[in-house]
Design goal:
Distance between the termini: 34 Å
Number of domains: 1
Radius of gyration: 15 Å
Shape: elongated
Helix content: 55-70%
Order of helices and strands: EEHHHH
Number of strands: 2
Strand content: 5-15%
Number of helices: 4
Length: 78
């Protein structure tokens, strides 16, 4: 979306929640788990999309597998 602000064109970007969550899943400390869990509880995340996004990143394979295991756990909770 583009809009004029003070005579300048500004482009707004609204990434999908799943795209934002991937960075939290890469670190996945307790604070990140609470954040992701709260989002998923409020508005269920597309866990299939999340897994695909994780696989599309340049994460260390062990980190990616840990993140995928975590989101699969969210799926079994739902």
């Amino acid at each position: 979306m583009q809009t004029e602000v003070a005579g300048r064109t500004v482009t707004g970007v609204a990434p999908a929640p799943e795209d934002l969550v991937v960075s939290k899943l890469a670190r996945l400390d307790e604070r990140d788990k609470r954040f992701v869990g709260a989002i998923h509880e409020r508005r269920p995340l597309d866990l299939t999309l999340l897994e695909r996004r994780i696989r599309e990143t340049d994460l260390d394979p062990a980190v990616a597998e840990r993140a995928i295991a975590y989101i699969r756990g969210l799926q079994s909770e739902g």
